[in-house]
Amino acid sequence: MDGERRGMSMVKEKVKNRLVWCILIIALGISNSGFGATLFEWTGAAGNDWFVAANWDRGSVPGEGDNVVIGGEADILLTNSTAFLSSIVMSGGTLVFSNWTTRLNAETVVIAEALVTCSGPFADSGMSNRVWISCTDFELAESAAINVDACGFSRGNGPGKGGAGFISGGAGYGGHGGYGNQVNGNVYGSVVAPLIPGSGGGSFSSSQQGSDGGGAVLLEASGDVVIKGLISACGGKAGTRTGAGSGGAVFITCQT
Predict the structure, then answer these.
(1) Quick check: 61 pLDDT over 50?
(2) 45 exposed, middle or buried (CB, 10 Å; 0-12, 13-18, 19+)?
(3) What SS3 state is found at 135?
(4) pLDDT tens for residues 134-163?
(5) What distance in Å separates the CA atoms of residue 72 and residue 93, rounded to the nearest whole number?
(6) Most buried in the list 58, 87, 186, 229, measured by CB within 10 Å?
(7) Nearest CA to 162 among 148, 180, 181, 176?
(8) In Å, how far are 96, 110, 141 from 229, measured between CA atoms?
(9) Is the dihedral of CA 254, 127, 92, 39 positive or negative?
(10) Using 50, 70 and 90 to split pLDDT, how confident is the model at 167?
(11) pTM, whole model, 2 decimals?
(12) Angstrom distance (rounded) from CA 161 to CA 245
């Protein structure tokens, strides 16, 4: 137990040092071009698209090895994968992932006083979305959140969707959905590597619709991950004669 405490203390200190380094860059406003990196700050002057150059203070989109700062009430839509950044620090605002293959790539990712989510919900025939972050070290601060509640398959959609009409039960995922004391939505997904979003609940009629399934979060880190805030992928609640959506997937891989 003492060894575990020492290990966690070392992880926290390492991430703390990285956060301090990022904050120093922000405070000094320097361009450390000597190390092949430049500081980019989000302005949102031309909308919410990450890949529109006019939305960044330098008039261009952050590239390989650059440092990114996002704060205030920023509202950003990420529709494609980023370059591999040196760091990204979100001290406020919202980052929305769109498209299943969109990935945020960086050596250090710090989410503080901010919200990360994805577009959704979506139908079987629609474009699926998730939150996908690939990095070396990651920290989610106590006041920050990755929230993809009800951002998975929409009601009546998904591999574990609830039944329709009289048997409008709950959606399944790791286990069957329910309909009274009977099973309903199908079982799917992986216990050891959950990646697929939750399914939508069953609908009794056009006026009594089921709930949406939870979204998916994939966090891949080769180093350390510190989670102090909330990561949530809940499905929508059941209603009168309608089924609940199943919870989604949160999958984190890291060294510590």
Answers:
(1) yes
(2) exposed
(3) strand
(4) 999 999 999 999 999 999 999 999 999 998
(5) 6
(6) 87
(7) 176
(8) 17, 11, 5
(9) positive
(10) confident
(11) 0.85
(12) 8
